[in-house]
Amino acid sequence: MPPQTRRNPRPITPARLEEMALAYVARFATSAARLDDYLRRKLRERGWDGEGEPPVAALVERYVAAGYVDDLAFARARAGSLLRRGYGARRIGQALGAAGIDQAVRDEVHAGADEQRRAALALARKRRLGPFGPPGAPPADRSAREKQVAVLLRAGHPLDSARFLVDAPSVEAAELWAEANEEN
């Protein structure tokens, strides 16, 4: 069988750039920065077949104005998804920053203390940390405890929350802690 040769992709025309942007926002929930990065990457890969500079910034602005791209809605959805998966505020902030979300928008969607506690509990339950470990298992030794605390820290939870969950005497105590108000 003869080796297949790769065809060089044709440069992007203004109409094709518009089609690519529309297809991207139709398929993915995205931020303005991600759409901009996607279009610029495609232009680097394939080249530009139009007059002057490609109108990427103007295209992104037009999609934001039309409501096809909404950074606040994207940030809310992404933060909610990460919270449900058990990630903490620090890790969520990093993910939103990597998606090009402005700091003001990140501050607006920042989870409250009660939501962060529930997220930490969800991760502890999912990863079988602390009291959620196998029933009848002996208490974790120091090395195992440090590894469990490290799991929670890497997920973006504060040290005091990680220590409490790993050292919680029972599942009920961990659940009560997660449901406690910030004032308690």
Please explain how this structure is put together.
The protein is built from ten helices and no strands. The mean pLDDT is 91. With 184 residues, the protein is mostly helical.
Shape: elongated
Whole-number average pLDDT? 91
Gap between N and C termini, in Å?
72 Å
Strand proportion: under 5%
**Helical residue percent?**
55-70%
Structural class: mainly alpha
SS elements, strand count: 0
Work out the radius of gyration.
23 Å
Query: Helix segment count?
Result: 10
Low-confidence stretches: none
Number of domains: 2
Order of helices and strands: HHHHHHHHHH
Largest sheet features: none
Short summary:
The protein contains ten helices and no strands. It is an all-alpha fold.
Offer a few descriptive terms:
single chain; 184 residues; mainly alpha; 2 domains; 10 helices; 63% helix; elongated
SSE arrangement:
Layout: H1 14-27, H2 32-46, H3 56-66, H4 71-84, H5 89-98, H6 103-108, H7 113-127, H8 142-154, H9 159-167, H10 171-179
Helix pairs in contact: 2-3, 4-5, 7-9, 7-10, 8-9
